[in-house]
Every structure is written in C-alpha cells, then in structure tokens.
C-alpha cells in the first residue's frame, strides 16, 4: 500500500487559516507530551481512568472502567492543546483570553458531536453511552473498540483485497451513512484511517470531529476541514451553489474503495477541475473485479456533485448491491456452494452473522409461518427479500439469540397392532417410539450488569429521552432524588433504580402513590414529585437510575419484585435469579397492550444517569468552656467623688479614681469594719 499523505486532514479558511496547526513535535517531545493527560486512577463520576489510549491536538482518549455497569469504556476528553492546558486542580484552563472564544466554540462542537452520535444506533457507528461537561471541558464515554484501522489492515494484506472483502467492508459503512444522512447529518471526513476494523472485520466509522449538522439550505460558513485525496470539490468552497450533502460522503467512500483497489488516492478534486488526470477503475482494474462494480465507483468519484449518486440508496443500486442489500456472512459460516459464484456472495452489515442461502441452492425446509400481527424486531433485524431462500440470525452482542429452530417431530402415539403372526419370510416389525426427551440445560446465569447493558443496547434513539438537572451528590438524611426528564415522543415512563449500597433494584415510578406515568412529548417531568420523594438513606451507596420511556404500557413482573414501602423492589440476587429464569429481555418488562391484543408498539427509549450518595457532614459541637469559680462578693463601696478639673496622677482617661485613691479608700473602709469606727 502507498504511504501517501493524501489522507492527512487539512484545515482551510476561517480562523484556522490564520493560526495553522503546530508542526509535529520531535520524537523525544512526543514521548513526554502526555503532561496534559489526567493520571491513572482519576475518578470522573462513575468512570475510573485505567490507562491512556491516545492524545491528539484536540482531545485525549483514556481507557476507563465504568463502576456502574462494570464494563470497559473509552473516555474522550476535549483538550485542544494549542488553546488550553491542564491546571493544578485537574481542570482545563484556557491559555489566553484571546483564545477563549475559539475554545468555547470547540467545546460546543465537541458536545454537539456527542449529542449527535448518541442519537444513532448502528454497529458501524460509534455508540456514545454518555456525555457531560465538567472541569472546564467536556467528556464522552464510548465503547472501547479493539481493532486496527482500515489503512493498517490494507498494509498488512500487502496486496489489493478481492471484491468480496471490499463489499464486506463497504456495505455496513453505507448503511451507517444512510442513517445519519436521513437526519441531515454528514460525516465529511471519511478515509481509511477513520474506519476501524474489529477482530471479525466488522467496520466502525470513526472520527466525527469534522461533522456538522446541516439544516435546510444553511450555507457552509464554517471552517473547512478536509482530506485532499478524499474530499470532493464542494468541500473546498463556501458558496451556496456548492452545497454539500449525501453526495459529499459518497465521493469520499468511493475514494476509499479506490484506495483499497489501487493503493493510492484519486487526484485531489480541486486539481481535477482544471485538468482531470483521474484513471477510471473500469480501465485500470478491469478483469479483477465486476465491471458494474468498478463503473459504479467511478460514478461516485465524478467531480461534479450532480453527476454522482445523490443518495446511499442510489449508490447501492449503482455498485450492484440492489435495493435489498444482503448481509455478509463470514467465510466460516458460508457453505462451499454459496462461495462458488460471485452472484451468491452475501455481504455483512452487522456483527451477528446472517447466512443468506441463494435461490439456486438446494431446496430447504420452509421456515415456520410468522404469526399474523407479530411485532418485528426493533433494531439489528435484517429484512431479506422474499425471493431469498431462507436465513439464520445468530445472537446479537452475546446476549440475545434469535433463530429458526429445526422443527421437532411430534410424539408418535403408540398403536397396538392385531396379534397376527407374521409370515416366516417377513422381517421383524420395527418398534416406533416417541422421541426421548432431551435433558434440559440449566438456565445460564444473567448478571444485573449484563441486563442493564442489554437494556441500553436495545433502546431506540428516536425517543430522544433527555435527563437534566440531576442533583448529585445527595446527602443521607437530607436530600432526595432530584432531576428533570423529557422525551421527544409521548409514552409511558418507568424509573428503575439500582441502589448499590442496599443491593436492591426497585421500580420507583410508577408506584402506589403515583400510578399515572403517561407523559407528553416535549413536556418536562420533574422529580421529586409533589406527593412522594425517594430519599437518600443508609446504607450509603451510589444509585444507577434507568429512565425508560415506552411506546406502550409495560409490566415488570418477571424481575422478582415484591411490594416494599409502596414500591416494587427486590435484592440484586433475586433479580439476577429471575433474569436467569425469564431471560435477559425481562429487564425491559413485557408490553401490555391497552386493548388486550398483541398489536401495540414495543419500542422504547432510555436514559441512564448516576447519583452519588454521601454521608451528612459531621458537625463537631462547640467546645465547652471550663466553669469559672464564682467571684468573691465584695461589700458595696460608695463611689469616689469626682474631682473637677483635669486628670490626676495615674487617673484613667475616662475620669475614674486612680489606683492610689482607690487603695486609700479601701483601707479606710477596712479600718472602719474592723475597729467599728466611722
């Protein structure tokens, strides 16, 4: 593979042009450049930093342990090293006031990026678990992906990959882009170093740092951030006539395929406007790949935006995926017959391996009919055209296993034959018996952490559940759970609270005092409620709160709950035992349709947050003063006469008798008392 630098990011225009990025530091300096990174062991809410993954010019990525859900995460911190530095108290401080506005704009972009990614749920898109602002900067928590970039994977291969492998990478990335394009969002920085391949070669699209939401006919007045080899011409201009759109990402994705096949990037698009030296793939790679595939990629790399496919759906048709793009099955799961012909290749778009048997394959036993009115799976479900022979869907994320079971023959009733002696030449009649019952495997244990993870993974992103104004920490014996919640969709709100100090899981809302849990779209719901509170009490421990907004009412009767002080609650051990019996999906409850049918929606949205429970500060009582001995009672003496005029010898400034006069008077009084004289 070529070591071309055409996939290096270039900043054009705006303030960035006036302040070019700093040159790369020497190796020795880079080794010590982590002085801005937080030390291992630092706690940021429920996250504890356990390692440093990487540090760039605009942020730092840490490996962290999530103590709430007991999982490993990647935690990204906004840290533009050219604008800010680490203060002594671990906060981020702007280097100069003249940089403050730029720093704040960058921080808002960082938060917007996190908020944007949190809306999407696709295996090829980075998932954002949580984002927040603190310590003068911003953070986002994401899954920790173990893999290498597409660029490095191509270097390791040493030779151009075949078409099946390219399609395997291309299809899920296209699906992910189609999702974000439907929300008027564009990546604008697609390149081989921004696509990570996990161990199963599943691609994940990285680095939305240059992503911006575009609404309506908004002009691109922001600073231009691009990679010359992958950026189309419209990314170089800031004119309304050069509007960016899905076709912008389509050009970059076509350039990635070009790089995979040729080992080099296409000529920069801005140069092609003057003199187009582009060599079509249909010419230079002819014979090694399908002609329609190569011609489709060439179309994606047209200089003029209007000559390219205008949507991912159009690109899918152009490169030969068809409107019903199938899902790639790893080679180990595909039969030799399915591997024999290019037309029978399947293309992967999810980690759960789906095997698609082509129509030309031998006839298969038909799948059982789907019950009429059954609700389709919400996410990670793949719909295949009716012409395809059949499919097998294997487990998602190691938690949920869906599949078509092989039909089991019903037991054969035993029938007594008439007692007639068989002819001598006839062979003995074989005895037909019912199939032996297979031993039932004990249920696999399910931890509460696994159930919480599955609950979050299967939540829909279109509900837009937002939690704000969370009070944390809360003081035991003084404070109560306090926050505000809103949802973009109307529905039914359920609050599950994992009290780690008490070791319990409770459904705190709805409850006996407050059973009405239907909420309106866009209307804030505030806690504590007017007629009840959830108070901080002993034993001390953090709370993990899960706010679930469901399209339909739900019951959580399979979690082992029992009424306790007006709310449904159970110990963690009881909940985990119930989950092991009922399955991990019981964590989301069961949908209860209002009309008693099974036709209501099963989708839900979810927001999670943590609250730290602390002991009340110990106030020491004021120290008692030692008791003073009572003063001796003295006989009342008449006041000395005040002499007119100035102060006498030894007199105080306030005109009182001097000490000498006082002693004389005291002696006369004593003489009178002792001698009885006046």
Automatic annotation (TrEMBL):
Binding site for ATP: 76
Entry keyword annotation includes Iron-sulfur: no
One term of GO molecular function: protein tyrosine kinase activity
Compositionally biased spans, kind Basic and acidic residues: 633-644, 661-671
InterPro entries, A to Z: DUF4384, Kinase-like_dom_sf, Prot_kinase_dom, Protein_kinase_ATP_BS, Tyr_kinase_AS, Tyr_kinase_cat_dom
Presence of keyword Magnesium: no
The Protein kinase domain, residue ranges: 47-321
Segments crossing the lipid bilayer: 382-402
Swiss-Prot/TrEMBL keywords: ATP-binding, Kinase, Membrane, Nucleotide-binding, Transferase, Transmembrane, Transmembrane helix
Coiled coil segments of this chain: none
Pfam families: DUF4384 (PF14326), Pkinase (PF00069)
Residues covered by region (Disordered): 1-34, 616-678
SUPFAM superfamilies: Protein kinase-like (PK-like) (SSF56112)
UniProt-recorded name of the protein: Protein kinase domain-containing protein
Organism of provenance: Niveibacterium umoris
């Amino acid at each position: 593979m070529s070591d071309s630098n055409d996939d290096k990011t270039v900043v054009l225009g705006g303030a960035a042009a006036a302040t070019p990025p700093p040159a790369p530091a020497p190796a020795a300096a880079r080794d010590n450049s982590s002085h801005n990174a937080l030390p291992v062991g630092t706690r940021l809410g429920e996250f504890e930093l356990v390692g440093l993954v990487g540090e760039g010019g605009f942020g730092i990525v840490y490996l962290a342990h999530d103590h709430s859900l007991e999982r490993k995460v990647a935690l990204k911190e906004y840290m533009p090293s050219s604008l800010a530095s680490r203060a002594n108290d671990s906060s981020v401080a702007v280097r100069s006031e003249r940089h403050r506005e730029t720093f704040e704009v960058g921080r808002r972009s960082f938060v917007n990026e996190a908020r944007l990614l949190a809306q999407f749920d696709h295996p090829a898109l980075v998932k954002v678990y949580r984002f927040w602002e603190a310590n003068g900067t911003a953070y986002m928590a994401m899954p920790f992906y173990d893999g290498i970039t597409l660029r490095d994977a191509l270097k390791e291969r040493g030779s151009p990959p075949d078409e099946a492998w390219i399609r395997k990478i291309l299809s899920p990335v296209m699906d992910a882009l189609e999702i974000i394009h439907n929300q008027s969002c564009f990546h604008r920085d697609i390149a081989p170093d921004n696509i990570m391949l996990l161990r199963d070669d599943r691609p994940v699209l990285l680095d939305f740092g240059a992503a911006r939401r575009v609404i309506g006919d908004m002009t691109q007045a922001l600073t231009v951030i691009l990679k010359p080899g992958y950026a189309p011409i419209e990314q170089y201009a800031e004119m309304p006539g050069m509007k960016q759109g899905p076709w912008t990402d389509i050009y970059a994705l076509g350039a990635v395929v070009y790089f995979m096949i040729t080992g080099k990037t296409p000529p920069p698009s801005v140069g092609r406007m003057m003199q187009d030296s582009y060599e079509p793939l249909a010419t230079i790679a002819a014979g090694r790949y399908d002609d329609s595939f190569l011609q489709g990629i060439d179309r994606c790399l047209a200089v003029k935006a209007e000559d390219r496919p205008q949507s991912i759906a159009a690109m899918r048709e152009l490169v030969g995926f068809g409107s019903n793009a199938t899902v790639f099955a790893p080679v180990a799961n595909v039969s030799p017959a399915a591997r024999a012909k290019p037309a029978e290749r399947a293309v992967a778009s999810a980690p759960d391996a789906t095997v698609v048997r082509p129509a030309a394959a031998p006839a298969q036993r038909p799948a059982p009919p789907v019950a009429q009115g059954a609700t389709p799976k919400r996410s990670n479900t793949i719909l295949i055209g009716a012409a395809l022979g059949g499919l097998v869907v294997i487990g998602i994320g190691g938690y949920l296993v869906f599949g078509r079971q092989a039909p089991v023959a019903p037991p054969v009733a035993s029938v007594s034959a008439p007692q007639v002696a068989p002819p001598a030449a006839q062979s003995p009649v074989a005895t037909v018996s019912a199939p032996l019952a297979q031993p039932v495997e004990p249920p696999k244990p399910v931890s509460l952490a696994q159930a919480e993870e599955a609950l979050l993974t299967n939540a829909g992103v279109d509900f837009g559940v937002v939690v704000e104004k969370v009070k944390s920490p809360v003081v035991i014996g003084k404070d109560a759970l306090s926050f505000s919640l809103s949802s973009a969709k109307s529905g039914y709100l359920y609050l599950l609270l994992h009290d780690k100090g008490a070791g319990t899981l409770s459904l705190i809302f709805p409850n006996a005092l407050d059973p009405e849990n239907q909420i309106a779209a866009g209307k804030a719901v505030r806690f504590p409620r007017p007629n009840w509170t959830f108070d901080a009490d002993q034993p001390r421990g953090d709370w993990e709160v899960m706010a679930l907004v469901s399209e339909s009412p739900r019951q959580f009767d399979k979690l082992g709950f029992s009424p306790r002080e007006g709310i449904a609650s159970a110990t963690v051990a009881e909940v985990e035992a119930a989950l092991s019996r009922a399955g991990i999906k019981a964590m989301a409850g069961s949908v209860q349709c209002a009309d008693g049918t099974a036709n209501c929606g099963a989708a839900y949205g979810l927001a999670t947050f943590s609250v730290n429970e602390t002991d009340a500060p110990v106030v020491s009582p004021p120290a008692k003063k030692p008791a003073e001995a009572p003063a001796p009672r003295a006989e009342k003496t008449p006041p000395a006469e005040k002499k007119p005029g100035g102060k006498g010898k030894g007199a105080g400034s306030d005109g009182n008798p001097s000490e000498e006069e006082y002693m004389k008077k005291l002696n006369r009084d004593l003489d009178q008392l002792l001698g009885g004289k006046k």
